[in-house]
Each structure stands twice: as C-alpha cells, then as structure tokens.
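Following up on my earlier thread - several people asked me to post the actual chain instead of describing it. Fair enough. Here it is, all 363 residues.
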Amino acid sequence: MRKILSKLSVYKAALLCLVITLLLTGWVAASWEPEKPELGEPPVWPERQAVTSTSQEWDYFVYLPLVQRPPPPPPWVDTENREASRSLYLEEYLGSANTDSGWTGNHATCGAGVTSETFRASMLRRINYFRSMAGIPPLTGFNDTYNQKAQAAALMMSVNRTLSHSPDESWICYTEDGREGAGSSNLYLGVYGPTAISGYVYDSGSGNYFVGHRRWILYPQTQLMGTGDIPSRDGYPASNALWVFDHDNMWGPRPDTREAFVAWPPSGYVPYQVVYPRWSFAYAGADFSQATVTMMRAGQSLALQQNTVVNGYGENTLVWEPQTSFSSAPAADTHYQVTISNVIIETQPRSFTYTVIIFDPAY
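Reply from S.P.:
Thanks for posting it. Predicted structure:
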C-alpha cells in the first residue's frame, strides 16, 4: 500500500510540474479563445482637430465653356426597386464574403503585418453595401495611415484577448500606433473581415442598445476609413479594428442623402438577411428625447421596445426593437410601416413615415 501511495505522489508531482511548465510557456493561454465573439463599446466623438489651411489666392481667372451634361446617377441604390436591391445584395454583399486575408503578421513576434489588397477591397465592398442601402455616399477608400494604426490595434486586441479603446503600456505588443488605432475604431474580438462589418451594423449585446457602431458605419460625412484584421491563428482569437474617425471630413458639411434621415433597415425593399433586431432612425441634430415610434404590419400594430436615447456617436439616433423575429425568410414580401412622431428639429416637432419591405432575395 505504501508503494502505491508513493507512486501516486510521484505522479501528482509530475502532473503539477507539467501544468506549471505549460503555464510558463504560454501554451495554456494561447489555447484559449472566447466562447463567442465579443463586440466592444463604440468610440465616442473625438475632440475636433485643428486643420491647417492650404488654400491660396489667385490673381488670374480661367474661363471655361459651359458644357451641358446629364446629371450623374445617385451614389446609392434605389431601394424602391426590388430588383435593384436584390442585385446589390447578391453582387456586393455576398460577393464580398470568403476572401482570404493574406495576413503577413505574427503574434509571437508582435508583427502586425498587413492584409492583401484583395481582402481590403472586400471590406470596402461590404461597408459600401450598407451605405448604399442606407442612401448615403460610399467611402472613397481606405487611408493607408488609418490602416496601419488599425492593424496595430487589432494585433493588440488579439494577443491580449480583450478589447479596450485605451490600452496602456502594460499590454503585450503595445505600440503608440495601436493605442491611437484602438481609440479611433470600432473593435471586435473573435471576428474579422467583412463578417465584422455586418456585426457592427447588427450591433448586438445589451450594452449596445443605442447602436453606436452602426452609426459610425452609416455616418454620411465619412469618406475614408481604415481596417485592421487579424485572423484566428496559433490559438489566438481573430480581431478587427475599423478606424471610423475621418478627421478631414467628419466635421464637414453633410452631403446629399437619399432621404433627409438615415434609417436601418432603410425604406424600400430590404433582404431579410440584413434586417436585425434593432431598428434605427438618425437625423442630424434632432432631439429624440420626446419622440415615439409605432409600427404596422398587415394593418395591425406591432409591439416594440423603444430604447433610451444616447447621443455622441455619429448622428443623433432613435433606436427601437420590434417584438418579432426577422431571421427567417418571409413567405412573401412583407410591408412594415414605421411612423416616428414628435422629433424636435430646430425647435419644431416633426413626424416621419416610411415603409420597409422585407423580402427573400433568393426569388
């Protein structure tokens, strides 16, 4: 019996040594991944940066002949046209999926690396799909500096397996670029690439009831963003940092939009796959503190939960949650009439009514 107990003690000691060794080498930590993707808090409006004027006066004029040209087509889809909405979904939304990242970095050496141009193009397509559907101008592209800083931020989130808009020097793989990128970006852990863009518009989680991530994706003034993407590798979780503060344009004049407001889902035909539990209605400078929402489906009132108004993310926005599911294909195109009342705009109350038609793009 003593020999057996002695052997068990030896085995226990050996097992303890193995666990300690694994912990010291980081194997146990590197094997951990979050149980489900984690969406961070959205970044709040930054302080306005000083802009140095580069304009100059000219002492001569050039007169050009006036040439009449037809007006260019609008930079967004006509959602009142079912086939136009369907084609955009099939070509741009589905067409932006399943692109290999081509990531060149390395977690162990704190190498942020880069992703391929093809991959970044798929990110841009997914962002502009949502902007086109929402009736706002598309992004003109990604800014290289924003990409670099967002990439450094994404690496820090992946290596440290947590999210923060204000990481400090105690973080593994900390860099100043990464810190700046984290403070200027939507952040996702466990997801990267075009899927992260859809996740930001979905904006799940109890703390995201005011859909701040969505509001930055659909902010009309934005022309340039930056993306940082880390695929899941060597036991580290995937991550995305999407730089959303376009400092050269975000305080500029609001561009023309299809409607005076920006809604998600928008008015007109919308594929059911991109209709999410939280609906939103944004209007620049509006006071939604006294606003109310009602919805009708097939002539019947639809129950909904109206969320607390929170400003400080993109345009002022009202958010509500219809008490029904949109996750399954409707048997037929289904009309939802939305009416928003008592929106205070320049001290005057206004009401808005529009119709969302949810459909199955497979037909």
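The chain is about 25% helix and 20% strand. That should answer part of your original question.
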